[in-house]
Amino acid sequence: MVAGTFYPANARELRQAVLSFLVAAETDHAETPKAIVAPHAGYIYSGPVAGSAYARLATCAEDISRVVLLGPSHRVLFTGLAASTSKAFLTPLGAIPVDRGAYEQVLNLPQVCRYEVPFEGEHCLEVQLPFLQLSLQEFHIVPFLVGTADTEEVAHVIARLWGGDETLILVSSDLSHYLDYEGAAALDAATSRAIEALRPEAITPTQACGCIPLSGLLHEAKRRGLKARTLDLRSSGDTAGPYDQVVGYGAYAFS
């Protein structure tokens, strides 16, 4: 667990932090999202932007019972998509069960394998979990870490698990890394335009660390006729960091 580093390890402090991000988020609740994209840095940096994505779930919280999570592997290099062997994921707010039956729908795909090593110490999915715990009611997760894969391979997995109103697709990704404030703002704006246009080919690893899972979502969203909307776009320079080297964060909803 990365509790105590990326987010508070104390359950009361964690609950207060996440709820503060959700309450502060501006939302008109105009659309019910089928998918969201949220950042995964330490909460002091990206928590306010993540809150903008999760606040969109308020109108559909009772309907969602399964969340398919995809994020980039930061620590382990591998090919394809890794499925966890764990029965549950833990946060200070409690345990979230893994939907083992959902995994069975995709484990026959050559790009998917059971591989627990990348999940050890990986933060990109874990930091999303407290937000889900305080935004939804009872739910299972289907977590994937994505290594080297092409857009169609990721999209195929998402398509198999698309489901209905009970399923939310969640991609975890930050945007640009360590540019100056103005340079990051310009690049992140271009990335947001590509996301809204559902153009995965226009997004590179320098624009989003989760560009591979993000590209898979964009591909499938376009195939299904969804529309993407930018909910929030800021950087660490706007939240808690200096201006000379910033990390970009975006929140997006697909409806």
Textual characterization of the structure:
The chain is α/β, with parallel strands linked by helices and 255 residues long. It has a single domain, classed as Protocatechuate 4,5-dioxygenase, Chain B, CATH 3.40.830.10. The protein is 32% helix and 23% strand. It has 8 helices and 11 strands. The strands form 2 sheets. Strands 1, 2, 3, 6, 7, 8, 9, 10 and 11 form a 9-stranded mixed β-sheet that branches. Strand 4 and strand 5 form a beta hairpin. The longest helix is centred in the last third of the chain and has 16 residues. The two termini are 32 Å apart.
Keywords:
single chain, 255 residues, alpha/beta, Protocatechuate 4,5-dioxygenase, Chain B, 9-stranded mixed beta sheet, two-stranded antiparallel sheet, 8 helices, 11 strands, globular
